[in-house]
Amino acid sequence: MDSDPKAPQMSARWRWSPPPGLLHGSQPPFDMQNAEGDPSFRELDGATIEKIQVLKGRAAMRKSTPLLILCLIFIAGNARALTLSSLVPSRGVPGTRVTIAGGPFSARAQVVIGSALVAPVKVGQEELIFEIPPLAAGRYALTVRDGDRVATQEYLFEVVEPAPEISSLTPRNVAACSDEAERRVVIEGKNFTPEAKALVNGSAVPSRRIDRSSLELQMPYLAAGVYGVQVRNPGGAVTLPYSLWVNDIPAIASVEQGEESVNHYEVIIRGRNFFYNSSLLVTESDFSEGSPRRLTLHAYHEQTSLSPNISSPQSDNLRYRDCRTLVYERYPSSYQTKELILQVVNPDGKKSEPYPVSLP
User: Fold this and answer.
1) Which residues face 208 on adjacent strands?
2) DSSP assignment, residue 236?
3) Would you call the peptide bond into 347 cis, given omega within 30 degrees of 0 as the criterion?
4) For the residues 227-236, what does the mean pLDDT come to?
């Protein structure tokens, strides 16, 4: 398109160009900061004005760079290094609370002990408190990490093995005649380490750790008496002995009528702590002749053929089946129900409580 001949033409003397060197980083021959105030600046085309403004921004940046560097140096200088000044205490058992002084600490601070990271239970700017985690006995390097900062100081903390303690045994009284389940004893206490062992009278017995405060042992078959139970940790720390009783006192739990024959029947006596040579006292309180009839029967083992009680083929006798069962073979004078009192007596004189029962 041809230009309008009537439109005013810009004289060549009004076309402004930056002097040589202005666009090449050299000092301009005129005041760039006041260039916009020059009357001729208003006559420039848009592209030229934009270049001048860019150059003006670069000049301002070159002037402000030293100030920016000074600010960064000031900020870095005020980012204080993380320091540690004290550690109290310097030894203890797992769970001990330890105070570290120094700082400055923030909410991101963590204690590094050995290879473990521990979050503090309390954090202040110049003090933090943490608990020793479950660690094996030994000496551990300790420092503090807070975000990107790590304290240059290192302390040594000695973890010592806690002394175990026993507070109770369940059960505390075990029958001499008992099965495997009845001879499991639970030890309650504290500071039982993973490899803790149970001792009975100083000798190790099968046991397993349930947790830090409980351990289960399997009592061996032992003669009646009082035994000392202890727990020993791997490092050698051991509890004081805690008493456990093994008793052989006979006890009758139940009586029932068993098989019947023409002239006799069996009485099954169940309980615990019966011996192969125990005796049975039988009292018939309502005997027809007036005064109670008392009978003492000595047990014999079922695997033998001879009963010490048999004076005639039709005499009452007592058979020992096992430490929980006695069989009383009874030849009644009549099948009228009578009130009986049964009592087991062991060779050492220990007796069961009298057990009343109604039988023919």
Assistant:
1) 216
2) S
3) no
4) 92
